[in-house]
Amino acid sequence: MENGANISEEALRRRTFAIISHPDAGKTSLTEKFLLYAGAIQDAGSVRARAGQRSATSDWMEMERQRGISISSTVLQFPYGDHVFNLLDTPGHRDFSEDTYRVLAAVDAVIMVLDTAKGIEAQTLKLFNVCRSRNLPVLTFFNKFDRPGRDPLELLDEVEQQIGLRATPATWPVGQPGDFRGTIDRRTGLFTKYTRTARGAAEAPEEIIDAERAAAEEGDAWKVALDSCSLLDAIEANVDLPSFLAGKSTPVFVGSALTNFGVRALLDAVAELAPPPLPRFDIAENERVLESPFSGFVFKIQANMDPNHRDRLAFARVCSGHFERGMDIECTRSGRAVGTKYVTTAFGNDRETIEEAFPGDIIGLVNAGDLRIGDTIYAGKKVEFPGVPRFAPEVFASARPLDRSKIKQFRKGIEQLDQEGVVQVLRDLDFGDTEPVLAAVGVLQFEVFAYRLSSEFSAPTEIISSPYQAMRITDKASADRLRQIGGIRILYRSDNEMVALFENKYRLQRLEKDEPELTLKLVFDGQPDS
Ligand code: G4P
Fold it and tell me: Do the Cβ atoms of 11 and 100 come closer than 8 Å?
Protein backbone atom coordinates (compact mmCIF):
# COMPACT_ATOMS: atom_id res chain seq x y z
CA MET A 1 0.00 0.00 0.00
CA GLU A 2 2.82 2.34 0.91
CA ASN A 3 4.57 2.53 -2.44
CA GLY A 4 4.92 5.44 -4.85
CA ALA A 5 3.09 3.73 -7.69
CA ASN A 6 -0.04 3.46 -5.58
CA ILE A 7 0.15 7.14 -4.60
CA SER A 8 0.45 8.32 -8.19
CA GLU A 9 -2.36 5.99 -9.25
CA GLU A 10 -4.63 7.30 -6.50
CA ALA A 11 -3.69 10.91 -7.31
CA LEU A 12 -4.51 10.35 -10.97
CA ARG A 13 -8.07 9.35 -10.00
CA ARG A 14 -8.64 12.52 -7.98
CA ARG A 15 -10.41 15.63 -9.24
CA THR A 16 -10.46 18.42 -6.69
CA PHE A 17 -12.60 21.36 -7.73
CA ALA A 18 -15.03 24.05 -6.64
CA ILE A 19 -18.14 25.63 -8.11
CA ILE A 20 -18.30 29.41 -8.23
CA SER A 21 -21.37 31.44 -9.09
CA HIS A 22 -23.31 34.56 -8.33
CA PRO A 23 -25.88 33.76 -5.61
CA ASP A 24 -28.96 32.06 -7.12
CA ALA A 25 -27.29 31.01 -10.36
CA GLY A 26 -27.67 27.38 -9.26
CA LYS A 27 -24.54 26.27 -7.40
CA THR A 28 -26.43 24.36 -4.72
CA SER A 29 -28.76 22.73 -7.24
CA LEU A 30 -25.88 21.66 -9.42
CA THR A 31 -23.97 20.26 -6.44
CA GLU A 32 -27.00 18.23 -5.53
CA LYS A 33 -27.41 16.92 -9.07
CA PHE A 34 -23.75 15.94 -9.14
CA LEU A 35 -24.36 13.84 -6.06
CA LEU A 36 -27.44 12.32 -7.68
CA TYR A 37 -25.60 11.40 -10.87
CA ALA A 38 -22.63 10.05 -8.94
CA GLY A 39 -25.00 7.83 -6.97
CA ALA A 40 -24.03 9.49 -3.67
CA ILE A 41 -27.65 10.39 -2.95
CA GLN A 42 -30.77 8.61 -4.14
CA ASP A 43 -33.21 11.45 -4.20
CA ALA A 44 -32.47 15.00 -5.27
CA GLY A 45 -33.94 17.36 -2.73
CA SER A 46 -31.94 16.07 0.21
CA VAL A 47 -29.09 18.59 -0.05
CA ARG A 48 -31.36 21.58 -0.26
CA ALA A 49 -33.45 20.04 2.50
CA ARG A 50 -30.28 19.52 4.45
CA ALA A 51 -29.44 23.18 3.98
CA GLY A 52 -32.82 23.95 5.54
CA GLN A 53 -32.10 21.72 8.52
CA ARG A 54 -28.79 23.30 9.29
CA SER A 55 -30.26 25.36 12.08
CA ALA A 56 -30.84 22.13 13.98
CA THR A 57 -27.14 21.45 14.16
CA SER A 58 -25.58 24.87 14.31
CA ASP A 59 -26.76 28.17 15.60
CA TRP A 60 -24.66 30.38 13.48
CA MET A 61 -25.57 28.55 10.35
CA GLU A 62 -29.07 29.62 11.28
CA MET A 63 -27.92 33.10 10.45
CA GLU A 64 -26.78 32.13 7.01
CA ARG A 65 -30.07 30.35 6.46
CA GLN A 66 -32.05 33.43 7.44
CA ARG A 67 -29.90 35.65 5.31
CA GLY A 68 -29.94 33.23 2.43
CA ILE A 69 -26.17 33.30 2.21
CA SER A 70 -23.66 30.56 2.47
CA ILE A 71 -20.89 31.37 4.91
CA SER A 72 -19.43 28.04 5.79
CA SER A 73 -17.91 25.81 3.22
CA THR A 74 -18.06 22.09 3.24
CA VAL A 75 -16.19 19.39 1.43
CA LEU A 76 -17.96 16.65 -0.45
CA GLN A 77 -16.06 13.56 -1.53
CA PHE A 78 -17.76 11.07 -3.84
CA PRO A 79 -16.71 8.48 -6.38
CA TYR A 80 -17.66 9.04 -10.01
CA GLY A 81 -16.87 6.05 -12.22
CA ASP A 82 -13.21 5.26 -11.60
CA HIS A 83 -12.59 8.72 -10.22
CA VAL A 84 -12.76 10.25 -6.78
CA PHE A 85 -14.21 13.76 -6.80
CA ASN A 86 -13.53 16.28 -4.06
CA LEU A 87 -15.99 19.13 -4.41
CA LEU A 88 -15.29 22.14 -2.22
CA ASP A 89 -18.10 24.57 -1.57
CA THR A 90 -17.41 28.29 -1.76
CA PRO A 91 -19.36 31.11 -0.17
CA GLY A 92 -21.38 33.05 -2.71
CA HIS A 93 -21.47 36.45 -1.07
CA ARG A 94 -18.81 39.00 -2.02
CA ASP A 95 -18.12 39.85 1.62
CA PHE A 96 -16.67 36.38 1.97
CA SER A 97 -14.42 36.45 -1.08
CA GLU A 98 -11.41 35.99 1.15
CA ASP A 99 -12.81 32.62 2.26
CA THR A 100 -13.40 31.78 -1.37
CA TYR A 101 -9.80 32.63 -2.16
CA ARG A 102 -8.62 30.22 0.52
CA VAL A 103 -10.81 27.46 -0.85
CA LEU A 104 -9.57 28.13 -4.36
CA ALA A 105 -6.01 27.76 -3.09
CA ALA A 106 -6.93 24.14 -2.37
CA VAL A 107 -8.53 23.15 -5.70
CA ASP A 108 -7.17 22.22 -9.13
CA ALA A 109 -10.09 23.43 -11.26
CA VAL A 110 -13.30 25.40 -11.06
CA ILE A 111 -16.79 25.21 -12.56
CA MET A 112 -18.25 28.65 -13.19
CA VAL A 113 -22.05 28.54 -13.23
CA LEU A 114 -23.91 31.29 -15.07
CA ASP A 115 -27.64 31.90 -15.13
CA THR A 116 -28.47 31.92 -18.85
CA ALA A 117 -30.93 34.76 -18.35
CA LYS A 118 -28.36 36.92 -16.57
CA GLY A 119 -24.93 36.08 -17.94
CA ILE A 120 -21.91 37.34 -16.03
CA GLU A 121 -23.01 38.97 -12.77
CA ALA A 122 -21.02 41.08 -10.32
CA GLN A 123 -20.02 38.27 -8.02
CA THR A 124 -19.16 35.92 -10.89
CA LEU A 125 -16.67 38.49 -12.05
CA LYS A 126 -15.18 39.01 -8.62
CA LEU A 127 -14.81 35.27 -8.03
CA PHE A 128 -13.49 34.70 -11.49
CA ASN A 129 -10.77 37.28 -10.86
CA VAL A 130 -9.70 35.20 -7.89
CA CYS A 131 -9.45 32.17 -10.21
CA ARG A 132 -7.41 34.18 -12.64
CA SER A 133 -4.93 35.22 -9.98
CA ARG A 134 -4.32 31.50 -9.42
CA ASN A 135 -4.44 30.51 -13.14
CA LEU A 136 -7.04 27.87 -12.41
CA PRO A 137 -8.61 25.98 -15.30
CA VAL A 138 -12.31 26.96 -15.53
CA LEU A 139 -15.20 24.94 -16.98
CA THR A 140 -18.29 27.07 -17.68
CA PHE A 141 -21.90 25.91 -17.30
CA PHE A 142 -24.78 27.96 -18.76
CA ASN A 143 -27.51 26.96 -16.32
CA LYS A 144 -31.31 27.39 -16.33
CA PHE A 145 -31.61 26.77 -20.04
CA ASP A 146 -35.05 25.28 -19.35
CA ARG A 147 -36.47 28.76 -19.05
CA PRO A 148 -36.37 31.87 -21.22
CA GLY A 149 -32.97 33.50 -21.32
CA ARG A 150 -30.39 35.07 -23.55
CA ASP A 151 -28.96 33.87 -26.84
CA PRO A 152 -26.06 31.51 -26.00
CA LEU A 153 -23.87 33.03 -28.74
CA GLU A 154 -24.27 36.37 -27.02
CA LEU A 155 -23.28 34.76 -23.72
CA LEU A 156 -20.11 33.33 -25.25
CA ASP A 157 -19.22 36.81 -26.35
CA GLU A 158 -19.89 38.15 -22.89
CA VAL A 159 -17.57 35.56 -21.32
CA GLU A 160 -14.82 36.56 -23.75
CA GLN A 161 -15.34 40.30 -23.35
CA GLN A 162 -15.85 40.49 -19.62
CA ILE A 163 -13.52 37.88 -18.27
CA GLY A 164 -11.13 37.49 -21.14
CA LEU A 165 -11.34 33.71 -21.47
CA ARG A 166 -11.80 32.24 -24.91
CA ALA A 167 -15.16 30.44 -24.73
CA THR A 168 -15.08 27.04 -26.45
CA PRO A 169 -18.44 25.22 -26.36
CA ALA A 170 -18.16 21.47 -25.78
CA THR A 171 -21.92 21.03 -26.04
CA TRP A 172 -24.45 23.19 -27.82
CA PRO A 173 -28.17 23.49 -27.11
CA VAL A 174 -30.91 22.35 -29.43
CA GLY A 175 -33.89 24.63 -28.81
CA GLN A 176 -33.81 28.14 -27.37
CA PRO A 177 -33.83 28.85 -23.63
CA GLY A 178 -37.34 27.93 -22.48
CA ASP A 179 -37.73 25.32 -25.24
CA PHE A 180 -34.74 23.17 -24.47
CA ARG A 181 -34.67 19.76 -26.16
CA GLY A 182 -31.11 18.60 -25.62
CA THR A 183 -27.49 19.18 -26.57
CA ILE A 184 -25.18 18.43 -29.46
CA ASP A 185 -21.77 17.07 -28.57
CA ARG A 186 -19.58 19.26 -30.79
CA ARG A 187 -16.85 16.63 -31.01
CA THR A 188 -19.05 13.76 -32.19
CA GLY A 189 -22.00 15.67 -33.68
CA LEU A 190 -24.38 13.39 -31.76
CA PHE A 191 -27.57 14.79 -30.23
CA THR A 192 -28.53 13.91 -26.66
CA LYS A 193 -32.25 14.30 -26.23
CA TYR A 194 -33.41 14.73 -22.64
CA THR A 195 -36.72 14.01 -21.00
CA ARG A 196 -37.79 15.79 -17.86
CA THR A 197 -38.61 13.89 -14.70
CA ALA A 198 -40.93 15.24 -12.03
CA ARG A 199 -39.08 17.91 -9.96
CA GLY A 200 -35.83 16.65 -11.45
CA ALA A 201 -35.71 14.21 -8.54
CA ALA A 202 -34.30 11.38 -10.65
CA GLU A 203 -31.83 11.29 -13.54
CA ALA A 204 -33.28 12.68 -16.78
CA PRO A 205 -33.59 9.90 -19.38
CA GLU A 206 -31.11 10.51 -22.20
CA GLU A 207 -31.39 9.28 -25.75
CA ILE A 208 -28.45 9.57 -28.12
CA ILE A 209 -29.76 10.35 -31.60
CA ASP A 210 -27.92 10.63 -34.92
CA ALA A 211 -28.06 13.73 -37.10
CA GLU A 212 -30.57 12.37 -39.62
CA ARG A 213 -33.15 11.42 -37.03
CA ALA A 214 -32.54 14.62 -35.08
CA ALA A 215 -33.18 16.67 -38.23
CA ALA A 216 -36.44 14.84 -38.82
CA GLU A 217 -37.64 15.07 -35.21
CA GLU A 218 -36.43 18.51 -34.13
CA GLY A 219 -37.06 20.46 -37.34
CA ASP A 220 -36.14 24.15 -37.13
CA ALA A 221 -34.56 23.91 -33.70
CA TRP A 222 -32.07 21.42 -35.14
CA LYS A 223 -31.31 23.69 -38.12
CA VAL A 224 -30.66 26.68 -35.90
CA ALA A 225 -28.38 24.62 -33.68
CA LEU A 226 -26.42 23.33 -36.69
CA ASP A 227 -26.04 26.87 -38.02
CA SER A 228 -24.57 27.99 -34.73
CA CYS A 229 -22.27 24.97 -34.67
CA SER A 230 -20.95 25.79 -38.16
CA LEU A 231 -20.29 29.31 -37.03
CA LEU A 232 -18.38 28.01 -34.01
CA ASP A 233 -16.43 25.63 -36.30
CA ALA A 234 -15.58 28.52 -38.62
CA ILE A 235 -14.13 30.59 -35.81
CA GLU A 236 -12.44 27.50 -34.40
CA ALA A 237 -14.06 27.88 -30.99
CA ASN A 238 -13.10 24.32 -30.16
CA VAL A 239 -12.19 22.84 -26.80
CA ASP A 240 -8.43 23.06 -26.48
CA LEU A 241 -6.91 21.19 -23.57
CA PRO A 242 -3.57 23.02 -23.27
CA SER A 243 -5.16 26.48 -23.24
CA PHE A 244 -7.87 25.31 -20.81
CA LEU A 245 -5.22 23.93 -18.45
CA ALA A 246 -3.30 27.19 -18.73
CA GLY A 247 -6.40 29.16 -17.69
CA LYS A 248 -6.75 30.82 -21.11
CA SER A 249 -9.84 29.18 -22.57
CA THR A 250 -12.95 27.68 -21.01
CA PRO A 251 -14.93 24.71 -22.30
CA VAL A 252 -18.62 25.65 -22.18
CA PHE A 253 -21.49 23.32 -21.31
CA VAL A 254 -25.18 24.07 -21.52
CA GLY A 255 -27.92 22.65 -19.35
CA SER A 256 -30.32 22.90 -16.50
CA ALA A 257 -29.56 21.80 -12.96
CA LEU A 258 -33.29 21.86 -12.21
CA THR A 259 -34.28 19.37 -14.91
CA ASN A 260 -30.90 17.55 -14.86
CA PHE A 261 -30.21 18.30 -18.53
CA GLY A 262 -26.50 18.34 -19.25
CA VAL A 263 -25.43 17.34 -15.75
CA ARG A 264 -23.79 14.07 -16.77
CA ALA A 265 -21.87 15.74 -19.61
CA LEU A 266 -20.48 18.26 -17.15
CA LEU A 267 -19.46 15.58 -14.66
CA ASP A 268 -17.81 13.59 -17.46
CA ALA A 269 -15.92 16.74 -18.41
CA VAL A 270 -14.60 17.10 -14.87
CA ALA A 271 -13.25 13.55 -15.14
CA GLU A 272 -11.89 13.94 -18.69
CA LEU A 273 -10.69 17.52 -18.85
CA ALA A 274 -10.00 18.80 -15.32
CA PRO A 275 -6.45 18.08 -14.19
CA PRO A 276 -5.55 15.59 -11.46
CA PRO A 277 -3.46 16.89 -8.55
CA LEU A 278 -0.04 17.99 -9.72
CA PRO A 279 3.10 18.40 -7.63
CA ARG A 280 3.05 21.64 -5.64
CA PHE A 281 5.98 23.99 -5.36
CA ASP A 282 7.45 24.94 -1.99
CA ILE A 283 8.57 28.46 -1.05
CA ALA A 284 11.97 27.84 -2.66
CA GLU A 285 10.09 26.81 -5.82
CA ASN A 286 11.15 23.19 -5.55
CA GLU A 287 8.64 20.57 -6.52
CA ARG A 288 7.30 18.25 -3.83
CA VAL A 289 6.63 15.24 -6.03
CA LEU A 290 3.36 13.44 -5.38
CA GLU A 291 5.12 10.27 -4.25
CA SER A 292 7.09 12.09 -1.52
CA PRO A 293 6.05 11.48 2.09
CA PHE A 294 2.84 13.16 3.23
CA SER A 295 2.53 16.93 2.98
CA GLY A 296 -0.38 19.34 2.90
CA PHE A 297 -1.44 22.85 3.80
CA VAL A 298 -4.22 24.28 5.93
CA PHE A 299 -6.67 26.45 4.01
CA LYS A 300 -9.54 26.71 6.45
CA ILE A 301 -10.09 26.63 10.18
CA GLN A 302 -13.56 26.24 11.52
CA ALA A 303 -14.65 25.91 15.11
CA ASN A 304 -17.97 25.04 16.65
CA MET A 305 -19.57 23.85 13.43
CA ASP A 306 -21.71 21.69 15.58
CA PRO A 307 -22.58 22.87 19.11
CA ASN A 308 -22.71 19.24 20.23
CA HIS A 309 -19.02 18.91 19.46
CA ARG A 310 -17.36 22.10 20.64
CA ASP A 311 -14.31 21.52 18.57
CA ARG A 312 -12.07 23.08 16.04
CA LEU A 313 -11.39 21.65 12.62
CA ALA A 314 -8.37 22.51 10.50
CA PHE A 315 -9.02 21.58 6.88
CA ALA A 316 -5.91 20.69 4.92
CA ARG A 317 -5.40 19.76 1.32
CA VAL A 318 -3.10 16.80 0.80
CA CYS A 319 -0.29 17.77 -1.60
CA SER A 320 1.86 14.66 -1.56
CA GLY A 321 2.09 11.18 -0.13
CA HIS A 322 -0.22 8.83 1.66
CA PHE A 323 -1.95 10.17 4.75
CA GLU A 324 -2.91 7.59 7.35
CA ARG A 325 -4.88 8.30 10.49
CA GLY A 326 -2.64 8.22 13.55
CA MET A 327 0.57 8.89 11.60
CA ASP A 328 3.22 11.29 12.92
CA ILE A 329 3.20 14.66 11.22
CA GLU A 330 4.60 18.06 12.07
CA CYS A 331 3.70 21.67 11.45
CA THR A 332 6.51 23.48 9.63
CA ARG A 333 5.90 26.88 11.24
CA SER A 334 5.70 25.77 14.87
CA GLY A 335 7.88 22.68 14.61
CA ARG A 336 5.32 20.90 16.77
CA ALA A 337 3.71 17.50 16.28
CA VAL A 338 0.14 17.57 14.97
CA GLY A 339 -2.36 15.02 16.27
CA THR A 340 -3.86 12.84 13.56
CA LYS A 341 -5.89 10.45 15.66
CA TYR A 342 -9.12 12.27 14.94
CA VAL A 343 -9.50 13.09 11.29
CA THR A 344 -12.77 13.68 9.54
CA THR A 345 -14.21 14.45 6.25
CA ALA A 346 -17.38 16.47 6.03
CA PHE A 347 -20.29 15.45 3.88
CA GLY A 348 -22.53 18.41 4.45
CA ASN A 349 -22.74 18.34 8.21
CA ASP A 350 -22.33 14.61 8.58
CA ARG A 351 -18.84 13.82 9.58
CA GLU A 352 -17.09 10.59 8.99
CA THR A 353 -13.74 9.50 10.29
CA ILE A 354 -11.26 8.95 7.53
CA GLU A 355 -8.50 6.40 7.68
CA GLU A 356 -6.38 7.51 4.75
CA ALA A 357 -6.10 10.17 2.10
CA PHE A 358 -4.12 10.87 -1.07
CA PRO A 359 -3.00 13.96 -3.01
CA GLY A 360 -6.02 16.12 -3.83
CA ASP A 361 -8.03 14.94 -0.82
CA ILE A 362 -9.13 17.21 2.00
CA ILE A 363 -8.66 16.13 5.59
CA GLY A 364 -10.27 17.77 8.61
CA LEU A 365 -7.91 17.56 11.60
CA VAL A 366 -9.90 17.71 14.82
CA ASN A 367 -8.67 19.94 17.64
CA ALA A 368 -5.26 20.48 16.11
CA GLY A 369 -5.13 23.66 18.18
CA ASP A 370 -1.82 24.96 16.94
CA LEU A 371 -2.63 25.06 13.27
CA ARG A 372 -3.23 28.33 11.42
CA ILE A 373 -4.45 29.09 7.93
CA GLY A 374 -1.59 28.72 5.48
CA ASP A 375 0.41 26.30 7.65
CA THR A 376 2.27 23.45 6.00
CA ILE A 377 2.06 20.01 7.62
CA TYR A 378 4.35 17.18 6.63
CA ALA A 379 5.98 13.85 7.36
CA GLY A 380 9.49 12.86 6.32
CA LYS A 381 11.50 15.57 4.61
CA LYS A 382 10.54 19.03 5.85
CA VAL A 383 8.75 21.30 3.40
CA GLU A 384 7.08 24.70 3.43
CA PHE A 385 4.45 25.69 0.90
CA PRO A 386 3.67 29.35 0.20
CA GLY A 387 1.13 30.71 2.71
CA VAL A 388 -2.40 31.78 1.83
CA PRO A 389 -2.29 35.58 1.52
CA ARG A 390 -4.79 37.82 3.29
CA PHE A 391 -6.96 40.22 1.35
CA ALA A 392 -6.60 43.95 1.70
CA PRO A 393 -9.42 44.91 4.08
CA GLU A 394 -11.87 47.53 2.89
CA VAL A 395 -13.95 48.11 6.04
CA PHE A 396 -12.94 48.63 9.65
CA ALA A 397 -14.64 48.60 13.03
CA SER A 398 -13.85 48.28 16.69
CA ALA A 399 -15.25 45.55 18.89
CA ARG A 400 -16.30 46.27 22.48
CA PRO A 401 -17.66 43.75 24.96
CA LEU A 402 -21.15 44.75 26.04
CA ASP A 403 -20.88 42.82 29.28
CA ARG A 404 -17.66 43.63 31.17
CA SER A 405 -18.01 40.47 33.25
CA LYS A 406 -17.59 38.42 30.08
CA ILE A 407 -14.19 39.84 29.19
CA LYS A 408 -12.51 36.44 29.43
CA GLN A 409 -14.98 34.89 26.99
CA PHE A 410 -14.64 37.94 24.75
CA ARG A 411 -10.85 37.46 24.57
CA LYS A 412 -11.13 33.76 23.95
CA GLY A 413 -13.70 34.30 21.20
CA ILE A 414 -11.61 36.96 19.52
CA GLU A 415 -8.56 34.75 19.54
CA GLN A 416 -10.49 31.85 18.07
CA LEU A 417 -12.26 33.85 15.38
CA ASP A 418 -9.00 35.58 14.50
CA GLN A 419 -7.39 32.19 13.92
CA GLU A 420 -10.30 31.12 11.77
CA GLY A 421 -9.71 34.22 9.67
CA VAL A 422 -13.31 35.43 10.15
CA VAL A 423 -11.90 38.96 10.30
CA GLN A 424 -8.39 40.37 10.78
CA VAL A 425 -7.85 41.46 14.38
CA LEU A 426 -5.59 44.47 14.95
CA ARG A 427 -4.35 45.58 18.34
CA ASP A 428 -2.96 48.71 19.87
CA LEU A 429 -0.26 47.51 22.25
CA ASP A 430 -1.03 50.44 24.59
CA PHE A 431 -4.67 49.42 24.96
CA GLY A 432 -4.19 45.66 25.25
CA ASP A 433 -6.99 43.34 24.38
CA THR A 434 -10.07 45.27 25.38
CA GLU A 435 -10.97 47.07 22.20
CA PRO A 436 -9.37 45.58 19.12
CA VAL A 437 -9.88 46.99 15.65
CA LEU A 438 -11.40 44.59 13.18
CA ALA A 439 -10.61 44.71 9.49
CA ALA A 440 -12.63 42.92 6.83
CA VAL A 441 -13.43 42.78 3.13
CA GLY A 442 -17.17 43.24 3.72
CA VAL A 443 -19.41 44.25 6.63
CA LEU A 444 -21.19 40.90 6.75
CA GLN A 445 -17.96 39.51 8.18
CA PHE A 446 -18.47 41.80 11.20
CA GLU A 447 -22.00 40.54 11.61
CA VAL A 448 -20.83 36.94 11.59
CA PHE A 449 -18.09 37.87 14.05
CA ALA A 450 -20.47 39.56 16.51
CA TYR A 451 -23.07 36.84 16.14
CA ARG A 452 -20.58 34.10 16.86
CA LEU A 453 -19.00 35.92 19.81
CA SER A 454 -22.41 36.18 21.35
CA SER A 455 -23.81 32.75 20.49
CA GLU A 456 -20.72 30.58 20.84
CA PHE A 457 -18.70 32.42 23.46
CA SER A 458 -21.51 34.12 25.41
CA ALA A 459 -19.78 37.44 24.90
CA PRO A 460 -22.26 39.95 23.45
CA THR A 461 -20.25 42.48 21.52
CA GLU A 462 -20.84 45.90 20.12
CA ILE A 463 -19.35 46.62 16.70
CA ILE A 464 -18.61 50.28 16.17
CA SER A 465 -17.67 51.26 12.66
CA SER A 466 -14.31 53.01 12.32
CA PRO A 467 -13.52 55.84 9.95
CA TYR A 468 -10.55 54.10 8.27
CA GLN A 469 -10.50 53.56 4.53
CA ALA A 470 -7.31 51.63 3.83
CA MET A 471 -4.61 49.52 5.44
CA ARG A 472 -0.97 49.01 4.59
CA ILE A 473 1.75 46.87 6.13
CA THR A 474 4.58 48.99 7.44
CA ASP A 475 7.70 48.73 9.62
CA LYS A 476 9.08 50.43 12.69
CA ALA A 477 11.10 53.12 10.93
CA SER A 478 8.17 54.16 8.73
CA ALA A 479 5.74 53.94 11.67
CA ASP A 480 7.74 56.59 13.55
CA ARG A 481 7.20 58.97 10.64
CA LEU A 482 3.54 57.98 10.09
CA ARG A 483 2.73 58.70 13.74
CA GLN A 484 3.58 62.35 13.11
CA ILE A 485 0.88 62.64 10.49
CA GLY A 486 -2.80 63.03 11.41
CA GLY A 487 -5.48 60.49 10.44
CA ILE A 488 -3.17 57.48 10.64
CA ARG A 489 -3.12 54.79 13.30
CA ILE A 490 -0.44 52.17 13.81
CA LEU A 491 -1.55 48.75 15.05
CA TYR A 492 -0.31 45.17 15.21
CA ARG A 493 -1.86 42.19 13.50
CA SER A 494 -1.81 38.79 15.22
CA ASP A 495 0.90 37.54 12.86
CA ASN A 496 3.05 40.37 14.33
CA GLU A 497 2.90 42.48 11.19
CA MET A 498 2.80 46.20 11.92
CA VAL A 499 -0.01 47.88 10.00
CA ALA A 500 -1.02 51.48 9.31
CA LEU A 501 -4.68 52.43 8.99
CA PHE A 502 -5.58 55.50 6.97
CA GLU A 503 -8.66 57.64 7.46
CA ASN A 504 -8.29 59.02 3.99
CA LYS A 505 -7.41 56.97 0.90
CA TYR A 506 -6.33 60.03 -1.04
CA ARG A 507 -3.95 61.12 1.64
CA LEU A 508 -2.42 57.64 1.49
CA GLN A 509 -1.98 57.93 -2.28
CA ARG A 510 -0.40 61.31 -1.83
CA LEU A 511 1.97 59.99 0.81
CA GLU A 512 2.98 57.06 -1.40
CA LYS A 513 3.89 59.57 -4.09
CA ASP A 514 5.57 62.21 -1.90
CA GLU A 515 7.48 59.90 0.41
CA PRO A 516 8.28 56.77 -1.60
CA GLU A 517 10.90 55.73 0.96
CA LEU A 518 8.14 54.81 3.44
CA THR A 519 7.23 51.15 3.74
CA LEU A 520 3.55 50.92 2.79
CA LYS A 521 2.93 47.45 1.43
CA LEU A 522 -0.42 46.52 -0.01
CA VAL A 523 -1.64 43.54 1.92
CA PHE A 524 -2.13 41.26 -1.05
CA ASP A 525 -1.12 42.23 -4.56
CA GLY A 526 -3.13 39.55 -6.31
CA GLN A 527 -6.43 40.69 -4.93
CA PRO A 528 -9.07 41.58 -7.48
CA ASP A 529 -10.30 45.19 -7.39
CA SER A 530 -7.68 46.27 -4.90
P1 G4P B 1 -27.15 29.11 -5.51
O2 G4P B 1 -26.70 27.93 -4.70
O3 G4P B 1 -26.22 29.43 -6.64
O4 G4P B 1 -27.51 30.30 -4.71
O5 G4P B 1 -28.50 28.69 -6.28
P6 G4P B 1 -29.55 27.55 -5.98
O7 G4P B 1 -29.08 26.24 -6.46
O8 G4P B 1 -30.02 27.65 -4.56
O9 G4P B 1 -30.72 28.00 -6.97
C10 G4P B 1 -31.37 29.24 -6.85
C11 G4P B 1 -32.75 29.12 -7.44
O12 G4P B 1 -32.67 28.83 -8.84
C13 G4P B 1 -33.58 28.01 -6.82
O14 G4P B 1 -34.93 28.44 -6.86
C15 G4P B 1 -33.39 26.87 -7.80
O16 G4P B 1 -34.45 25.94 -7.79
C17 G4P B 1 -33.36 27.62 -9.11
N18 G4P B 1 -32.64 26.89 -10.15
C19 G4P B 1 -31.43 26.30 -10.07
N20 G4P B 1 -31.10 25.71 -11.24
C21 G4P B 1 -32.14 25.93 -12.07
C22 G4P B 1 -32.40 25.57 -13.43
O23 G4P B 1 -31.63 24.93 -14.11
N24 G4P B 1 -33.59 26.01 -13.95
C25 G4P B 1 -34.50 26.74 -13.23
N26 G4P B 1 -35.61 27.10 -13.83
N27 G4P B 1 -34.28 27.08 -11.96
C28 G4P B 1 -33.11 26.69 -11.38
P29 G4P B 1 -35.71 28.92 -5.58
O30 G4P B 1 -37.05 29.32 -6.06
O31 G4P B 1 -34.88 29.91 -4.85
O32 G4P B 1 -35.76 27.67 -4.66
P33 G4P B 1 -36.66 26.36 -4.81
O34 G4P B 1 -38.00 26.81 -4.37
O35 G4P B 1 -36.63 25.91 -6.22
O36 G4P B 1 -36.02 25.41 -3.87
Answer: no
